[in-house]
Amino acid sequence: MIAARPGQSVASALHGAGVRVLARSPKYRRPRGYTCGFGACGNCELTIDGLPGVAACTAPVRGGEVISRERGWPSARVDLLRTAGLVARFLPAGFQFRLFRSHPWLASRAAAVMARLAGAGTLPAATAAAPRLAAATADSCDVLVVGGGLSGCAAALAAAQAGATVVLAHRGQLGGRSLARVHPVTRAGLQAPARQVATSLAGQVASHPGITVIEGSALGWYEGGVIPLLTASELIECRPRHLIAATGSYDVPALHPGNDKPGVMLADGVGRLLAVDRVAPGRRAVVLTDSVRGYWLARQLRESGVSVAALIDRRQEPGADLAVLSRPAQSGCSTRPAHDSTRPARDSGSVRVLAGSDVSRVLGLGRVRRVQVATPRGRRHLAADLLCIALGEQPANELALQWRYDRAGSTETVPGGWQEPSADTAGQGLTVVGSAAGWAGDDIDRAACAGARAAALRRSA
Amino acid sequence: MLPGVSSELPARSYDVVIVGGGVQGLALAYELCRRGVTSVAVLDRSWPGSGASGRNGEMIRSAFASTEWSRLFHHSLARWARLSAELDFNVLFSPTGYLILASTEDEVRRCAQDAATHARLGIDTEVLDARAARRLLPAANPDLVFGGLLQPRAGFAHHDAVVWAYLRAAARLGAHVFPGVEVHAVSTAAGRVTGVRTSRGPISAGAVVNAAGAAAGQLNQTAGVRLPLVQARLEMIVTEALKPFLRHAVASPHLLGYCHQTGRGEFVGGTELPRTDETGSLNATYELLRDMARKWVRLFPALAGVRLLRHWAGTVSEAPDLAPVIGTAPGISRFYLTIGWVYGFMAAPASADLLAEQIVTGHVSPLIEPFSAQRLLDGRLISESSLVVAAGGALAGR
Predict the structure, then answer these.
(1) Which residues pair with B292 in a beta bridge?
(2) How distant, in Å, are the alpha carbons of B9, B12, B96, B193, B195 from that of B204?
């Protein structure tokens, strides 16, 4: 029995209750915990009320649900099969089929064991079977915006203000990843924290009569311009005159031994715990970064009462980014968890910054205990229970690529590799905006322009 | 780069040039090298296994309705059982059993007829009544399970592992495999093959093999070989890994679908609409996504709510009778065909073995003789009624 506040995610409630291992990796049974916060990494898939494979970091707590982990023998918390990873180095790949060739009876025993270990969740229980969807309904609109982050909301508003009928499809809370971020963004010449701007834009979108907000997923772009939108209760076949893909981005993890231990989290996952779910991600954090993003995250952690052991900057020279740590607090952006169980950190006003350094290894049995850092002056060990990865972002451009692939009419891979679709496809019915288009920074006004242009294209069509 | 893929440029001349680095082309290269042909090149416009070889349903059986299909595929099944050992690579062949599901009284009767054929050919199959079939498929909707035909020693393998295994084995024996080399035309002179023209220049060859999958018809035309082949698109889905609930590979003629659960727990299935989707496009379609979701949830109701990992399409070349074309191209000496494959993954160990024998010794095995190109020109089509694939062209509506 775990207490949680309404609106909190299942994974954050578990994390807050001290449950660090949420899943096990399929083969070597490495423990996995809360990581990305936005349903992108697969490290927190749980069976919730009999339905397997639910990304618990984006599943809101409704109250009274029965939650179980999916892999692990005898349990996911203590998985004896973890030892397989420890002996694996002594076993040549494929040893078993040579062994089974000479001992066929072993093969049938092994098959029985493998069948027990295979898979994650069981077939959904009859009681959990997904609701039978209403028959697909067709919907046409001038502009379909997929993704309700800063760029998507700004584009939808601008298109609606220009008179277009707009459908905005979005998973989870309007505002998206920006709800987890506190760095300042600029909209119409005014600067404010991303979270604040996202909340304000989301409110305007929700109340605009020209915008229909659909909480659901766009399944893809299919021949003939059909974009099926899947909600909890129905399947909507949307045929927009113009598609704006504001599908955002993914946090990129770091490559070093131990990068999957519970306690290693991606920046937006940390931000979400602090600002949305209001759960302390840990007590003592190390932040790894190569941009100003890590400085804002360190500051957000500190203001929320998590002590920051060090900020590891891969760059030789952080330059002006250092000033982020010493700026006065922004108004309206208190992110201190409501019921913070961690020790309050001494607000020293300073965070140790190790420039020209990188994380070389994460140590700890089953969770982060120490972070090994390679600095220009040698190796150092930092005690920490949280490693935050604030590196680059990878555009979530699947939808745009599917559109592009279809246009290419390809019988093979797209010639010349996967290029980013850019705004010059607007005349053909697609605009990609924001981080999905690889735009650096939160270019909200640019997204709004794209929305207005989409509305104008509809009129001229 | 995959082990076995050549990083050099193709030489100017080879004894045998194989066009297409799918499972057919790579298995053939291996079989040729095994028979002492040392100068073999496999050319692929993309990477090895990028076409239907890496996109198929990876199911394996030899229990078909016709004698022709059953005999060829039974030779293949015998080779599948020892393939991992032979290639020294685990192809994850899982002989869990292959069930042809009967959902109507008519299909139950057909199972019994086919079983008689199998008994005559020495293929071990078993006719199941409704109760036995439902016991094998506890998760299935009983309304769709009236019986079936079980081949206990058939099953499935991992298609990527099979491609890698043949690639590695062929390369070890000296075959050169070149990705990213597109063949523009087969060159001929005086009714005899002389080589190929490629994106990397001309290559002369003593023999050329068309193993170009979906592009086989186009390649034939460059040599003036005209066979009634069409391109067709097939689609599949795979779900997230689940605890085992389906042990057998299952083909359902009633649903026009085939499925199995992999060793890792993913449910993999493909279905078809009762028409041939003639296109070279590899884009997956919404129409088939809906068809697959509807049919698989109908057969296994508890799959409702399980998330899909991927949905993809693959393309093949199809003859009017959906049977492969194996052997010499009509009218051109030393130009060989192993094309028109719709069930090519499961047949590759046999077809490559027997075609290599024909190329090296000139002997045409009675197992591949019925699948000659000449049959299509003479209108001697092979009737095979147990295929779970929409009949195209001449046999449509049978």
Answers:
(1) none
(2) 14, 6, 45, 9, 4
On chain A, the residues whose CB falls within 8 A of the CB of B158 are none
For the stretch A128-174, pLDDT in tens is 656 666 667 777 889 999 999 999 999 999 999 999 999 999 998 99
For B304, the closest of A53, A129, A413 (CB atoms) is: A129
Q: A80 in a domain, yes or no?
A: yes
Residue after which a domain boundary falls, among A75, A97, A128: A128
With contacts defined as CB-CB under 8 Å, which chain B residues touch A111? 94
Q: What are phi and psi of B251, to 5 degrees?
A: -115, 135
Peptide bond into B138 cis (omega under 30): no
This model of the complex carries an ipTM of: 0.84
**Whether residue B106 sits in one domain with residue B30:** no
Residue ranges making up the domain that contains A344: 277-391
Spans in chain B with pLDDT lower than 70: 1, 391-398
C-alpha R_g of chain B? 20
Q: Pull the structure tokens for residue A314.
A: 């891969």
Cβ atoms of residues A84 and A24 within 8 Å: no
pLDDT digits (tens, 9 = 90+) for B290-330: 999 999 999 999 998 888 999 999 999 999 999 999 999 99
Query: Using the beta-carbon criterion (under 8 Å), do A223 and B242 form an inter-chain contact?
Result: no
CA A157 → CA A172, A187, A424, A452, B34, distances in Å?
19, 13, 21, 9, 67
- Which residue's structure tokens are 């995250």? A297
- The bridge status of strand A307-313 relative to strand A430-432 is unpaired
The number of residues in chain B equals 398
**Does residue A20 lie within any of the structural domains?**
yes
Residues B245, B312 within the same domain:
yes
Tokens of A116: 């027990």
Looking at the domain assignment, is residue A255 inside a domain?
no
We report the CATH number of the domain holding residue B347 as 3.50.50.60
Token reading at B144: 């769709």
The whole-angstrom distance between A59's CA and the closest CA on chain B is 15
Q: How far is B297 from chain A (nearest CA, A)?
A: 11
Between chains, do A97 and B302 touch, taking CB under 8 Å as contact? Answer: no
How many domains, in total, are found in chain A?
A: 3
Q: How confident is the model at residue A88 (pLDDT cuts 50, 70, 90)?
A: low
Interface test with A, best of B298, B306, B316 (most A CBs within 10 A): B306
Report pLDDT digits (tens) over B193-223: 999 999 999 999 999 999 999 999 999 999 9
Round to whole Å and give the CA distance between A118 and B250: 19
